[in-house]
């Protein structure tokens, strides 16, 4: 008998559709799968037999024969995302739909900064926001949406402040290079964003937010079916003036000044459709994004009048076809990303700088169970990227991923390798990127598990690294490195709740690191140029404690504590002052705490983060002091006609700390925000 599939409850925020997704149709326990048509036939036979037994009780004349009993195989519907997470040898953390709903109106950078091990760096309240994992740079964190890479090939980064949570259902943060996509430069880890799935039943969720410093936000997601077609549309609109007061660090004595030029507005429209046909399950989505923001510059400099415009169009379509004991998925993605910089100049008028990149990606994935314990996966990908920098530079990537998944009650293992080729008009060596992740369950249960993972990565230079004028270096080599980690998980459950604890230790080595440094090109004239001169050794550990406990019949306590320690040391040149020192802006210790107490429909929640000092120079001088960031929220939910209404009041930066992720780019002092959220036909998140 095959092992069970999945549960019909909504686990980790993924809605159960009327027809199962491919991941749910593929047997995640590694056994041979029942053929889809056979399962349909058995289910129809069961329904017909049950209907006959109930409704057709009138006596009839027939030949007498001995009663027989047909035992059907047991099929349990369990969420595929939950299964993948629990049975993975890679250190992972999931941000569920329930937590995303609590952060409605925020950006992904806010969500990750509060709910995961990710370290967020933001240039002030309205500036660029990047994320890094395990002390690595933001360029070593791979970010995807429904399997499509979001990182801009121009800069190698993604501004997460431009990504709203309005159309997201879950986020999975995988640490280290042992993940399936770890070979694509993800030395620190991978962040997988998963969008809301269209549903058969009507679904509506809308949010309105008003706060200090001109903050306005409105977002909504609507899903309904049009015959066999399931549709989803999400809209997110935001405004922010950013005119808060702060202490000018360049004045003596210190005086309070008003931040100017930090306004920001965002427009996002996301659409997704799904259709199941005899030719496979079709899924397509489009995302239009436009963000306009002021560029106020550092707080110790005179105000500037500048504006930056980020625009992006992303399209994806996939077809998933069932085969015996597996599936075949074809996916095509296309993106067009542009950035415009507008600066007012009294002598020359408006000066406009513009750059854009276009990317296309074709991917094919085949999954097939070959025995009761093994499943094999083969994936090929071809990605082409073009930039308008200079006369139009291009580069292409071709990758072939081979993966084997071993699933036993006591041991789960993922063993794979990737062959990657990078082509930019000249010859480039073929990269072999092995990886492995193994998980051991001594008792054959989820109570205790031990895991270990390792992998090799490579990251080609970006368009900016090679062709930026002035200073780009077209002769740069790709960065290469190794990452490994080991850890354990302990989980316990009781009638009143659950508790989970995890701990990990990690190590990484990066070679040929691309470092920008100044060089003289003339008398008192210098430019910044990148070279492959860097080597970085990283090590550290992280731990987490999660608690969900019911107190009586109407009260509930939820708690989360995350702690991480990381050293990222420059090992480039022993004769330099930076050798053996911590990289710039990488804190050694970070603590994140969330505590919530619910009584009936009222929830009181506090979210805090402590970040240790960070050095702004490579010789560990001129540190930024550590800081505490604390927010308090009170939320009241009530049932209304057709749905649920939630009112929330939040106090941000309760301690009124001076917080600077980057020197001279302060974030707002203590302030208030109010939100109103309405959900039509809400799915009971407590079942997840």
* Mean pLDDT score: 84
Total helical segments:
6
Given helix and strand content, the structural type is: mainly beta
The total tally of domains equals 1
Main beta-sheet strand count, sense and barrel state: 22 strands, antiparallel, barrel
> How much of the residues is beta strand, in percent?
over 45%
Which term fits the overall shape? Answer: globular
Care to describe what's here?
By secondary structure, the chain is mostly beta strands. The protein has a single domain (194-687), classed as Maltoporin, Chain A. It has a 22-stranded antiparallel barrel. A five-stranded mixed beta sheet has the order 1-6-7-4-5. A hairpin with a 2-residue loop joins β15 (306-323) and β16. It is globular. Mean pLDDT is 84; it is low at 1-86 and 683-688.
């Amino acid at each position: 008998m095959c092992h069970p599939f999945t549960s019909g409850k909504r686990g980790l925020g993924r809605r159960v559709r009327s027809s199962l997704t491919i991941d749910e149709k593929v047997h995640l326990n590694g056994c041979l799968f029942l053929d889809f048509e056979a399962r349909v036939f058995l289910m129809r036979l069961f329904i017909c037999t049950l209907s006959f037994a109930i409704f057709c009780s009138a006596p009839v004349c027939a030949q007498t024969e001995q009663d027989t009993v047909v035992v059907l195989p047991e099929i349990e519907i369990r969420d595929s995302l939950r299964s993948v997470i629990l049975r993975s040898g890679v250190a992972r953390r999931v941000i569920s739909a329930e937590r995303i709903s609590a952060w409605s109106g925020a950006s992904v950078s806010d969500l990750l900064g509060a709910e995961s091990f990710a370290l967020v760096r933001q240039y002030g309240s309205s500036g660029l926001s990047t994320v890094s994992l395990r002390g690595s740079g933001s360029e070593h964190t791979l970010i995807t949406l429904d399997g499509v890479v979001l990182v801009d090939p121009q800069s190698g980064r993604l501004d997460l402040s431009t990504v709203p949570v309005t159309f997201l259902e879950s986020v999975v943060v995988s640490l280290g290079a042992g993940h399936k996509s770890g070979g694509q430069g993800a030395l620190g880890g991978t962040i997988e964003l998963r969008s809301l799935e269209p549903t058969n039943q009507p679904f509506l969720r809308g949010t309105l937010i008003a706060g200090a410093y001109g903050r306005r936000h409105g977002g909504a997601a609507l899903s309904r079916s049009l015959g066999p077609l399931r549709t989803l549309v999400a809209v997110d609109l935001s405004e922010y003036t950013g005119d808060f007061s702060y202490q000018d660090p360049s004045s003596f004595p210190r005086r309070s000044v008003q931040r100017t030029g930090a306004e920001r507005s965002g427009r996002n429209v996301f659409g997704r459709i799904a259709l199941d046909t005899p030719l496979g399950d079709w899924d397509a989505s489009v995302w239009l994004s436009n963000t306009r923001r002021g560029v106020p510059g550092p707080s110790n400099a005179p105000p500037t009048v500048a504006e930056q415009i980020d625009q992006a169009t992303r399209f994806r379509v996939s077809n998933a076809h069932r085969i015996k004991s597996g599936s075949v998925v074809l996916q095509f993605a296309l993106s067009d990303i542009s950035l415009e910089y507008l600066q007012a100049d009294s002598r020359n008028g408006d000066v406009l700088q513009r750059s854009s990149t276009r990317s296309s990606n074709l991917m094919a994935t085949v999954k097939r169970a070959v025995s009761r314990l093994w499943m094999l996966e083969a994936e090929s990908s071809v990605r082409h990227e073009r930039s308008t920098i200079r006369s139009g530079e291009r580069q292409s990537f071709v990758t072939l991923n081979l993966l084997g998944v071993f699933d036993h009650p006591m041991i789960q293992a993922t063993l794979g390798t990737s062959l990657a080729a990078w082509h930019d008009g000249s010859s480039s060596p073929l990269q072999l990127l092995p990886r492995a992740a193994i998980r051991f369950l001594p008792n054959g249960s989820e109570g205790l598990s031990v895991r270990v993972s390792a992998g090799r990565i490579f990251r080609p230079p970006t368009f900016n690294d090679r062709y930026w004028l002035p200073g780009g270096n077209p002769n740069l080599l790709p960065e290469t490195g190794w990452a490994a980690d080991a850890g354990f998980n302990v989980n316990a459950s009781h009638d009143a709740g659950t508790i989970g604890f995890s701990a990990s230790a990690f190590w990484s080595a990066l070679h040929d690191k691309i470092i920008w440094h100044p060089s003289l090109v003339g008398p008192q004239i210098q430019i910044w140029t990148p070279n492959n001169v860097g080597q970085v050794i990283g090590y550290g550990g992280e731990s987490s404690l999660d608690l969900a406990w019911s107190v009586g019949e109407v009260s509930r306590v939820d708690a989360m504590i995350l702690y991480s320690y990381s050293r990222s040391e420059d090992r480039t040149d022993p004769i330099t002052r930076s050798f053996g020192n911590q990289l710039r802006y990488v804190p050694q210790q970070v603590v994140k705490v969330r505590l919530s107490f619910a009584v009936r429909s009222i929830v009181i929640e506090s979210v805090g983060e402590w970040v240790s000092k960070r050095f702004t120079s490579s010789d560990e001088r001129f540190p930024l002091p550590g800081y505490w960031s604390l927010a308090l929220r009170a939320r009241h939910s009530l049932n209304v006609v057709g749905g649920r209404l939630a009112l929330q009041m939040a106090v941000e930066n309760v301690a009124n700390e001076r917080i600077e992720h980057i020197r001279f780019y302060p974030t707002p002092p203590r302030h208030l925000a109010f939100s109103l959220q309405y959900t039509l036909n809400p799915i009971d998140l407590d079942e997840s």
